Amino acid sequence: MRGAIIKLHKEGRRQCDIAKSLNIGKATVSKVVRRYVELGHDDDRPRSGRPATVNTRANRQWTKKRFMRNPRTPHTNPQNDRHYSTEPPRDLAIVEHRQHPRGIMVWAGVCTSGKTSLIFVDKGVKINKEVYQKDILEAVVLPWSREHFKNTKWTFQQDSAPAHKAKTTQEWCRTHFPVFTTSAEWLPYSPDLNPMNYSSWLILEARVCCRRHQTLESLKQALIEEWDKLSPQDLRPIAENFVKHLRLCVAAKGGHFET
Cα–Cα distances in Å, from 158 out to 109, 136, 146? Predict the structure, then answer.
């Protein structure tokens, strides 16, 4: 990048024009040009001491462990695919991001044979134990489970959110569900174990966010539409992989694991 800046500077281009053409900040251009004028070149300043190297005993051992842990996982350096251009196409270089985008809070449940409806939480409502028990468990999950499972024995599982592991919530589940996973049996932090997190939400997000939504209502309708499209054939592998994730977690002794 310094070479491109110096080249344009030698051609008599103004610093603001250089910054605009290279799509970089004016302060960066000013710093490089000022250094070039002072030194007469753009070479790196001489450094004292032995040059740093990545070929150390610790790094070699770390790399060896990484490959031994999962030899089938590819390990590549993403920097190898980086190329610098003096004239980058601006339509590809500009990526728009909205700061603090608005969103929707939603709850849902899945099993091998079906799913609940989406439960949208109103803006400003905090999901405490009272709201969770009354508006989600009692109002939606309980009647749905009675209709869906009837007399079949089933297990209710939830993550360790504060509202979920509250004593009154645990007692509510113990009273109303045939079997449920208690907070003592569930890891405090386990995004890779919850079927909703390791698959269901990812599928829904990929389908819904492939297009822009100008309003929250548009986003909400897209969520409902894509959620309704999820069939038992889509959900069955998600739920059946639950045991696989548990075994991988045990094998990793609660640490990071890859599926």
Answer: 9, 12, 18
